[in-house]
Amino acid sequence: HSHTSLSSQMTIDEPFEYLTFGGTFARTFGLFFDRFDLFVAMTGIVLIPYVILVLTLGIFAASVLIREEEVPNFHPTHIPLIVLVVFLQMLVYEIATVLGQGAISQAVAMIYVGQRPEWIHCLKTSWKRKWALLGSSLLVYGTLFTAAIPPFVFLLVLSMNVNALTIILACVSCTAYVLGGLYGYIGVVMSSPAIMIECFSNPLQGIMRSWELATGSRCYLLCTLFCLWLFNNLLARLLHNMFTGGSVMDALFSVVGIIISVVPILLFFPLHAILETVLYLNLRIGRESMNHQVLAGDLASDASPASRFRNDDPSAEGPTNSMDYRHVPLMDMDDNKLDESLAPMAQQNLVV
């Protein structure tokens, strides 16, 4: 009755078969439950700052700022405090989890090539690329925040003169921003796996690589990420309704509310990081015929991809026109036809 893990069941080439929509989720959840200890350990470590901040702000706000024995009912005067608490939580969460996402991407890639990663090795590898990871995250979310300023100002101007026309303009501007933001975000969502696996030191390289892979596959990426986000929100809403009664103040400042807000993150964070990496690897498998050898080469060296996968002539002097062989088709149609035409001649020579 011995338990056989998912990674040990797969052959060397099986992880490099292109996955369907359902297969993507099956691979993601399979990896998560197969190495549950590894992913939960990394998640717990990177979320320690977030948990400490949540507890500190909750206790401080409830005991000092609110100065009431029980958690008060929601009142409009509490809005600035709530906004401050949520902003600080989001800021610390983003900073603390960038390295965790990189570590999980490293672990998933190592499992793909048949290795058994350790959480401390993955975190050390992520720490080596901290500036590229933090830089890409800052560029992505900073751009989204900056792009939201003009629509926000436009909505403020329209709110001063509310009528049918301004309402229509407000709806159009909000819809345009949401659609544009989704289009841009889906294009760069795989920046972290690209930086970790292909060893990019420049955050722009990881962003551009993600954009290259996402081109033509945004519907696939959007649907998979949306389904995982929906699952997480349904779980979080269920837990909050069961234990906090849906109260905003209870959810933010009660002990039960704080615990319930942390539990879904312990599941969603590793699943989201695993899914991003599986999507990245799946697109490379489908478009570039990536195999065990290529991925192992990516993980084995800190050199840039251009130096690890070149097709230069070693005997040539001076610079040569070179390209990454992963972007070159394995066989052209003309070459295939030529091989077929030469096959009969080769057989005749063998007979002679």
Task: Give a quick summary of the entry.
This protein has 352 residues and is an all-alpha fold. The protein is 75% helix and 0% strand.
Question: How would you describe this protein?
Answer:
The chain has 352 residues and is an all-alpha fold. It has helices spanning 6-9, 21-34, 36-46, 48-65, 79-112, 119-128, 130-159, 164-188, 191-198, 203-214, 218-243, 248-253, 255-288, 292-300, 305-308, 333-351. The longest helix has 34 residues, at 79-112. Residues 303-336 have low confidence and may be disordered.
Largest sheet, strands/sense/barrel: none
Tally of strands: 0
Strand content: under 5%
Task: List the uncertain runs.
Answer: 303-336
Count of DSSP H/I helices: 16
Percent helix, as a range, is over 70%
Could you state the order of secondary-structure elements as H and E? HHHHHHHHHHHHHHHH
- What would you call the shape? globular
Mean pLDDT, rounded to whole units? 77
- C-alpha Rg, in Å? 25 Å
Distance between the termini: 58 Å
The computed structural class is mainly alpha
